[in-house]
């Protein structure tokens, strides 16, 4: 009889070592993802704008981030359901890594903004194939009593890669150029592809056939959690549309900006696992509320920074707020999901990707055509709305309180 990597219903308090193998294997691709998120808004400054030549640079930077996030978000629910129906996760991750690697290589030979947009759409689809599958694998490698910590550890490794990637991208672009940086991204994607292909084993839910009974209001709770993730990512990702503008306003270059971008992720990495542990012990809802509340004054402050040091400090504080929201939201969603993890939790990850997509383009449009400060106030209002929704509509599952 074949043994499964994990059985979610067991009572073990220890984390499955396979969780670390999965997280580290994906680390290299996350480095590349962080590099691209930072490099592409700056790379387009020197590209032929074509039909977008008269469009403000902040709007073009927003478009690049938005098309990736939208294609990523729209593909996740469909691919999550397909993953559940096939009861297979690893093939989705492997195919996604291959697509990321190939498209990163092509960036190095792209000199048209329109062509770059098309490539970014395709890359969003490939990355979308990996997200619900990986979340399901992390779920299969944890129990209810360790889920917050497991998701925190996975998110820590992922965040470390993304944050370090921004700094690495800034250094490589400054000394060796954008083309070299794109080749490095492709190589990092290839490393993850190889590691996952040979060292990560398929996972399956150990509760097959034991469907969880839906609790009253569960659909509403998934909606609220999705809204919270969308609002958080919207407020965090608008900065990518403003990188060229921040560079001019603050009179700073790629390396300083990369540190500001990475400050958020690095601090988030340090707080991800602790916030997961706190959510296991104190309850998911309290930690989510704390994170949303903290982010409101931070996003307003981002519209008034006077130097790069202030930008770095606010982004670091944003890392704490995001760690307090993302880990317990994902853990709570998994607690509610039952066995259809990929399909149900994909609504959360898709909302996160949608926030990543719409934040930069909406921020760019508002800053480009109204005022630089306007999008930051919009983000604050959105966060306040999601805070009120969480306070009024989220209930702690009995299992997360008593385990």
TrEMBL record:
CDD domains for the chain: MFS_MdtG_SLC18_like
SUPFAM superfamilies registered for this protein in UniProt: MFS general substrate transporter
Keywords: Cell membrane, Membrane, Transmembrane, Transmembrane helix, Transport
Superkingdom in the source lineage: Archaea
Subcellular location: Cell membrane
Regions crossing the membrane: 27-45, 51-70, 91-109, 115-139, 151-175, 181-201, 222-243, 255-275, 287-306, 312-336, 348-369, 375-394
Gene Ontology, cellular component aspect: plasma membrane
Predominant location: membrane
Name recorded for this polypeptide: Predicted arabinose efflux permease, MFS family
Membrane protein topology class: Multi-pass membrane protein
Domain Major facilitator superfamily (MFS) profile residue range list: 18-398
GO molecular function, one term: transmembrane transporter activity
């Amino acid at each position: 009889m074949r043994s499964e990597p994990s059985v979610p219903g067991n009572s073990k308090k220890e984390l499955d070592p396979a969780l670390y193998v999965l997280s580290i294997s994906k680390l290299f691709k996350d480095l590349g993802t962080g590099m691209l998120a930072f490099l592409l808004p700056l790379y387009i400054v020197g590209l032929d704008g074509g039909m977008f030549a008269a469009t403000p640079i902040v709007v073009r930077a927003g478009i690049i981030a938005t098309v990736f996030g939208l294609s990523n978000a729209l593909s996740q629910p469909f691919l999550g359901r397909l993953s559940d129906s096939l009861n297979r996760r690893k093939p989705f991750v492997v195919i996604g890594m291959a697509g990321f690697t190939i498209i990163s290589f092509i960036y190095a030979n792209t000199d048209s903004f329109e062509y770059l947009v098309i490539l970014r759409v395709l890359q969003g689809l490939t990355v979308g194939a990996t997200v619900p599958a990986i979340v399901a694998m992390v779920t299969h490698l944890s129990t209810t009593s360790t889920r917050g910590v497991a998701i925190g550890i996975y998110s820590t490794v992922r965040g470390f890669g993304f944050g370090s990637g921004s700094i690495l991208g800034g250094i490589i672009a400054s000394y060796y150029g954008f083309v070299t940086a794109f080749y490095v991204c492709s190589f990092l994607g290839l490393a993850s592809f190889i590691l996952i292909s040979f060292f990560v084993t398929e996972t399956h839910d150990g509760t097959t056939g034991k469907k969880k009974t839906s609790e009253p209001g569960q659909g509403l709770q998934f909606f609220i959690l999705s809204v919270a993730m969308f609002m958080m990512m919207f407020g965090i990702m608008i900065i990518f549309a403003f990188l060229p503008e921040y560079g001019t306003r603050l009179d700073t270059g790629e390396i300083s900006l990369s540190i500001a971008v990475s400050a958020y992720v690095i601090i988030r990495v340090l707080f991800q696992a602790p916030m997961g542990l706190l959510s296991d012990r104190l309850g998911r809802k309290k930690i989510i509320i704390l994170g949303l509340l903290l982010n409101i004054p931070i996003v307003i402050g981002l519209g008034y920074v006077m130097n790069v040091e202030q930008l770095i400090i606010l982004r670091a504080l944003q890392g704490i707020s995001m760690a307090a929201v993302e880990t317990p939201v994902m853990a709570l969603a998994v607690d509610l999901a039952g066995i259809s993890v990929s399909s149900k939790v994909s609504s959360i990850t898709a909302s996160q990707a949608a926030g990543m997509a719409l934040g930069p383009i909406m921020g760019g449009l508002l800053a480009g055509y109204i005022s630089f400060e306007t999008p930051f106030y919009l983000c604050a209002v959105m966060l306040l709305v999601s805070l009120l929704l969480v306070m009024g509509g989220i209930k702690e599952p009995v299992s997360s309180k008593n385990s």
